[in-house]
Amino acid sequence: MKYAYYPGCSVEKNAAAYHNSTMAISAPLGLELEEIEDWNCCGATEYFSINRLAAYSLVARNLALSEKQCGKIDLVAPCSACFLNLSKVDAHLQEDHSLAEKVNLSLAEAGLHYNSGSVKSRHLLEVIMDDIGLEAVKAHVTKPLQGLRIAPYYGCMIVRPGYLGKYDNTEYPMSLDRMMNAIGATVVDFPLKAACCGGHMTQLNQDIALDMIRILLQNAVDNQADVIVTLCPMCQLNLDAYQGDVNRHFKTKFHMPILYFTQMLGLAYGMDAKTLGIGKELVDARQALSKIGVEVPPEEPAVKKRPPKEALPMPKMPEEAQP
Amino acid sequence: MAEATTQARTPTLADRIVAATPGDCRLEMCIQCGTCGGSCPSGANMEHTPRALFALINAGMEEQVLSSNTPWYCVSCYYCTVRCPQEIHITDLMYTIKRLSIQEGKYRKSTASDAPGFSQDFIFFVENFGRSFELGIAAAYNLRYHPLGLPKMAPMAFGMVRKNRMGFLPTRIKGIAGLKAILAKAKELEGQI
Question: Counting beta carbons within 10 angstroms of the beta carbon of residue B180, is it exposed (0 to 12), middle (13 to 18) or buried (19 or more)?
């Protein structure tokens, strides 16, 4: 099935593993993802706080580009925040004609136009579960993740508030549970599966953010999870990169690897860990994945750049000026 | 032509907030039940829970509303929005209150007075490059507001660099001139609202 694809800024660098694993599993699943050319940032949770019309126009540029390049096919975003912003703007443009008119006046400055409601934005998980289907997901499994205990973590923005219609339950979603179950993993109960990872709070008030992360990690530990599986770059970043800070702050000893659901699918399809970007996580997943016999390539030693022996001459005072 | 016999009343704070929120936000439907505050992950650290803030809005207490830390501590998790029995678009309203607070400079009195700075540093890169740039945002914001906290961030930053997850240069989109023109026009039109 063919879709327009909006990667989002995170996957350019910090969540490259998410993008790479998505690309890797798209072939066996029959997902054809056409990246929108020259897409821009969705504004995350920040632009809407500054200027309403600019924020809506920023997002609408992506919708207009998608409509222009791929027509009315669905637009897929792997990031929950991107998915939320794209669907929020589309929903509000359909609801508020004066807003849509002004957004189009702005877009016209760059020769663009967006017909509200013509491109439906969807999250990658939703597309795989609803369009590709669980049977197809199961069909390609060659190495079931037998014995791996997974805590499925949805976070907020894929299930709430559902601007273009609700996807799954807003309080206790199950789609990712079913997917992980289908590829052979043991899915643990994870009561906080749809709770917040802290979002931008890690920057604004770290005490609050670290506590939100601690509660989530503790909940996964309490249910004996080996790994938390996520579907959003922000959630992955907060739980993974700030886990060390949580341990220092609360004197805890969490060691909970955070991986993307696309990486788990890839492993179940027998793909190698490196292709899937495994090893990019800050909290090492090696030990957890050894349970299912996955060998993670050893970390490449950092290459130290030594200055060449014939280095450039040091600047010297002119002869005559020296005492 | 007959003269108008009725006079439009001066817009109240609630009117202004509703008008600046896209879609039907249903602010006037609040029954003060408190489900929002009870659902909020950062509610305990807010000066006013959303329920209390809405009561202040309806009472027209502009100063308290616009200088409250509440909207800035909102993490956009949308729990309140989906749990509200009156289906009020609470998270969207928080964005509106943030915008008004910046416009009127009231955020400076808030205990979260550096929060708008983070949003502004974020959008600087979006407006000038078309993409977000994590290192630039974090560096600009923390140097300005939390320079003493920088050493504490070092282990995390070092880890991100070691795993090659931190970009050192922002990506500039090809159509940046077009994007700048779109945003300039949008800001100009927003002034007319």
Answer: middle
Convert the pLDDT of each residue in A76-90 to its tens digit.
Answer: 999 999 999 999 999
Q: For the domain made up of A141-290, give the CATH fold.
A: Rossmann fold (3.40.50)
Domain presence at residue B162: yes
Residue B193 scores a pLDDT above 50: no
Residue B161 in domain: yes
pLDDT at B115 over 60: yes
Domain presence at residue B174:
yes
Task: Give the whole-number percent of chain A exceeding pLDDT 90.
Answer: 89
A49 to B98: CB separation less than 8 angstroms, yes or no: yes
CB A37 within 8 A of CB A279: no
| B4 domain residue, yes or no | no
Which of A29-43, A309-323, B38-52, B73-87 bottoms out in mean pLDDT, i.e. has the lowest?
A: A309-323
Judged by CB atoms closer than 8 Å, whether chains meet at B165 and A112 is answered as no
From CA A277, how far away is CA A294, in angstroms rounded?
13
Q: Residue B68 belongs to what domain range?
A: 13-109
CB < 8 Å from A in window 70-109 of B: 71-73, 75-79, 81-82, 89, 91, 95-96, 98-99, 102
> Average pLDDT, whole number, for chain B?
92
Chain B: closest CA distance from residue A99 (Å): 8
Separation of alpha carbons B182 and A65, rounded Å: 13
Q: What does the alpha-carbon distance between residue A83 and residue A80 come to, in Å, rounded to a whole number?
A: 5
Phi, psi for A168 (deg, rounded to 5): 65, -175
Domain stops at, among B109, B132, B147: B109
**Tokens 């399809």 label which residue?**
A269
B22, B75, B130 member nearest A40 (Cβ): B130
Report the chain A residue with the minimal C-alpha distance to residue B25: A92
ipTM rounded to 2 decimals: 0.93
* Alpha helices, H only, A109-153: 124-126, 134-139
A2-123 in CATH: which number?
1.20.1050.140
Of B109, B136, B168, the residue at which a domain comes to its end is B109
pLDDT at A319 over 70: no
Q: pLDDT grade, residue A299 (50/70/90)?
A: low
Same domain, B121 and B104: no
Inspect the interface and report whether the beta carbons of B126 and A47 lie closer than 8 Å.
yes
Q: Which of B132, B166, B181 is closest, CB to CB, to A44?
A: B132
Residues B101 and B120 in one domain: no
Residue in chain B nearest A277 by alpha carbon: B163
**Partner residue opposite B99 with nearest CB, options A45, A49, A107:** A49
Facing residue for B165 by CB, picked from A13, A111, A161: A13
